[in-house]
Amino acid sequence: MHTTLISVDELTRNLGKPRWVIIDCRFSLKDTELGRQAYRDGHIPGAVYAHLDEDLSGPILPGITGRHPLPAPAEFVTKLEAWGVSNSSQVVVYDDLSGAIASRLWWMLNWVGHSAVAILDGGWSRWQAMKKPVATESVRPTASSFTPHLRQELFVSLEETETIRQNPRFRLVDAREAVRFEGKEEPIDRVAGHIPGAVSVPFAGNLSPDGTFLSPQQLRKRYEQILGGTPIENVVCYCGSGVTAAHDLVALAHAGLGLARLYAGSWSEWINDPARPVGRMP
User: Fold this and answer.
1) Which active-site residues does the annotation give?
2) Which CATH number is 78's domain given?
3) CA end-to-end span of the chain, whole Å?
4) Helix (H) or strand (E) holding 77
5) What is the pLDDT of residues 1-18, one digit of tens each?
6) What is the Cα–Cα distance from 146 to 274, expressed in whole angstroms?
7) Is 187 exposed, middle or buried (0-12, 13-18, 19+ CB in 10 A)?
8) Sheet containing 117-120: which strands, arranged edge to edge?
9) pTM higher than 0.90, yes or no?
10) Which domain holds residue 235?
11) By C-alpha distance, which of 92, 127, 106, 80 is closest to 20?
12) Span 166-193, pLDDT tens digits
């Protein structure tokens, strides 16, 4: 069973196996149809497509939710069944951003109790670079049955985040790039800065220059320095909208440190109330 990452060669050896489900998560915030078009132009054989806004998020409530609120678990399970995911499936997810989007689906599957899910290490770029087979036809999977076992302990609410952010027993981790954390630049949300008490751990630091994840040993060294002995159940990751934060969660798990937790509403939810404090670096 693969639970964090899978190599291109390992996935190639398992293409076409009946209990393997491959899901293409390519997506661009700048052009939300770009990923779907990229899927039509070419994808891993047998892969189905998951759209971040339509399939991996729930309805946005202006002034209440963040940019990518979680869908209701029952609605997500319906999607999984339509994609052919059963409780015995090995799921592989990929994108063209070294797991930045696919990690959201990785976390969501763990959230509903399905741990046999892995990110394709290096993603679509590595698949192409290694000249692996490419398909263009859309896939119509056979529907399955999936029984969820919701792991609500992996989810952190806005209210809990407000409580723990200054608690020294917890570590709040911001996965966005440093300039956004520092409040010096904000290309997406209307307020720049970070949740006071958080530490900056940009998800890009989990990656090697070739776009694959660092080794478990390298990741463990990175995160042990940051966490300083904080128990993994007290580690909470967030980002702009609860997507790239899951990349840090994958890295922690791949390092052998366990499953940390996700503040899914993230920065875009936090700033809905102007009374909430905002941290900025001088």
Assistant:
1) 239
2) 3.40.250.10
3) 47
4) helix 73-82
5) 999 999 999 999 999 999
6) 41
7) exposed
8) 5-6, 117-120, 90-94, 20-24, 48-49
9) yes
10) 152-270
11) 92
12) 899 999 999 999 999 999 999 999 999 9
